[in-house]
User: What shape does this take?
Amino acid sequence: MPKTVGRLAVLLLLLVPDLLVLVQPAPLAEPRPLDPATQRELAARKAERRARFNRSPEEIAAARLPEPAPYPERPTPVVVKGALVAGRPPVPGPPAAGGAPAAGLAAAEPGESAAQPAAPGRTAPDAGAALAAAGVDLAAELGRAWLEGEVLQPDGSAVPWLEVRLRADADGSVVAATVTDGEGSYRFPDLDPGRYRVEFGPAEAPLGRHQEPVEVRRGGYRRDFRAPRLGGLQVVVTAADGSRPLVGRKIRVQERFGEEREGVTDADGVARFRNLPVGSYRVLLIEDGVRVAEKRQAVVARAEPRVEFEV
Assistant: This one.
């Protein structure tokens, strides 16, 4: 065994030089000379770079691009009672003669709310004269503000025809009231600056209100409300024989937590209760302050189940 190992070692020593010769890289080829056209192009580029960096200050200044002309200053639009007046708050001046619109304002078409900007060469004092002639207090109008928002259910659907009240934060008095439109939107225009709270739902059983008051100063503010899941009820009161509806009957619905609403049957003998939070309700028929009939009904989202009484 030792002899075999020794023979292998001698064989490897003899083969190492040959292996080194085999693994040596091939010599690199000599670079080919550039053709005359390429040489001339490279020489021209080098000369151009040298000329670019060795220019005099006069040449550098002459090569600069001219300064761009400044943009003309645009007047700040001012909104006054739905009309757009070109220019900053104007200075009152003499009214225009003949009852025609003063310079700086163009008469708006019916249904439009924006007047055309002042014609070139006309000044904003003419617009102020038109406003003064119309009896518009520009300073008071510029101080106005508005508040708007949307009322949506948890699934993102709108809550239409929901009562919305705006209360003064100082004493809780109702400053304004409205209802949401078909898209669940509401708006309180022409507000005086101050602190307000927004309340949603019937006054006797509000669905909710914003905990933090909104500080209204100038311009528009937005407060959205995410209402609980809502449904409704239709309560029908008819004569015992079913021959005719009973008009003017008092209906009271009570929610399990004690909140209640009241309504009166219309000419069809129907009392409708909309935007009720989902849950279980007691439906009471009241006569002379006394409960004469009672039923229980569950309110589900986006539905108006029917409850019938025969008297």
Remarks:
- Confidence is low (pLDDT under 50) at residues 78-125.
- The first helix runs from residue 2 to 23.
- The radius of gyration is 43 Å.
- Residues 281 and 297 are 5 Å apart (CA to CA).
